[in-house]
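Practice problem: Cytochrome b6
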Amino acid sequence: MSLERKDEHDHKGWMESRELTPIESVYLTVLVWLDRRLRVVDYLEILEDLYYKVNMQMPKSHTEQYNLDNKFWYWYPLYALGSFSTVAYIVAAISGALLGFYYAPAAAAADGSPTVAYDSVMLIMGQLNLGYFLRSVHRWAAQIMVAAVFLHMLRVYFTGSYKEPRELNWLIGIVLISLTLVFGYTGYLLPWSQLSFWAGQIGVEMSLSIPLIGEWVAQLMFGGFTLSQATLQRMYILHVFFLPFITTAIIAVHIGIVWMQGIAEPH
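Answer key — structure tokens:
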């Protein structure tokens, strides 16, 4: 008598009775293996049940209510801008993390060289294998993300997708585009080149122009009224530590709300 646990659903026999592709066979084999040990399928069924319960509570979309699935096909590429900006953000995050291994956030060195930060960027661009490519990928991903987020906000506005019941996600989107611009500005200062220096000086002057709290904002964001090591250090901490975690968390909330409410088609 065998002590081996009997497969109640005979997964192996079911798989053999179907004409499965190699990819499907590997996927189902891994899924069955995990399910026997971690009850993965039970948790997937709970998520599926939750998904349908949440979506059944939402009103029908316009395409569902008026059977317009094939009437607004020319709008559909614009509905990929949110996903496109998310992919650009992921590419920028990965390439930025790799650049961080070689970047040094120091404005000056003990030997008198003008800027360690700028020298480290030059090392990445000129001496590191694929360094020029890596920095270019990071820069282009950031620029594409800014453009995609801006166009995404325009699409949401002109299609009326910000209206009830999606007002909260519209406000979250405004926060995300603001964080995207802060991401771009802090990253722009990190090479500590002439362009970075004068962009930072403009930021200081803009901070000082704020009524009542201008000097306090300049001290907090730039470490003073002139650019220094404290400025570069603040930009680096914001760009590498604070903004990624905050932005990733808010993106997760934003996508979660879209998943619960569904996509708002053109009105």
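Discussion: Residues 12 and 95 are 42 Å apart (CA to CA). Students who identified this feature from the tokens alone can consider the problem solved.
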